[in-house]
Amino acid sequence: MEPLNFRHEGRTIRGTLHLPERGDAPGVVLCHGFSGNRTEFGHTYVRLGRRLAERGIAAYRFDFAGGGDSDGEYGDITVSDQVSQTLAALDALGQVPGVDKDRLSLLGMSLGGLTVSLAAAKRQVRFLALWAPAAIAVADEVNVRRRAIIAEHGYDDFGGTPIFQRFVDDAETVDAFADAQGHTGPVLLAAGSEDGIFAPGVLEGYQKVYGDQLEHHRLDGVGHGFETVPAREHLLDLTEAFIVRHA
User: Fold this and answer.
1) Which of 6, 39, 88, 123 is 20 to 30 Å from the Cα of 95, by its Cα?
2) 176 CA to centre of own chain
3) pTM, entire model
């Protein structure tokens, strides 16, 4: 592992690179979920990064602005800003000696999953891997509810992290499915059967966007964070296999 930082709109975005020994390696950018950081739940991104490097694939995990070690305030978060940061992370990874800039891909968890699906519509990547993508974060009914709560309290309390008006204003400009159209490579989508954030209609929405490109895995008995040891091991195994197959 080694540090890899980049600048984005006056902020230093800090990350960690897992670089394989051989050169000309494909690369994957790993994007964490809401209020998370570049290790992800149960250190799954650390474990995945190590496993991919052993398979000859570079993995770059970074903290979104305001999260983890990166500059900024997390209250300033918007989906569009995260998409822009993700594109900058692809550029940073593509400039690393030993990484093939023409063989880059994206993986994201939850809000990071929504983010990478939108980024891949703006920049061609080889594949997408979506862990429990939080398309609901920009849904109209959620925006309406949040706007009312913020008008009364000044913020929406989401699991102990405040969401402010700027997030809602931006979310209202985003269509999780229409704005994801354009990616032409394979897509992995994994979600738990008890995931309340992976809302009804989300799978169908992505099936319409990606069609036969989509490989869906339902992990029974777990929620949004894949909360058991067997589920997380299975998630890592199926994700590693998918990445090795398509990188």
Assistant:
1) 39
2) 13
3) 0.95
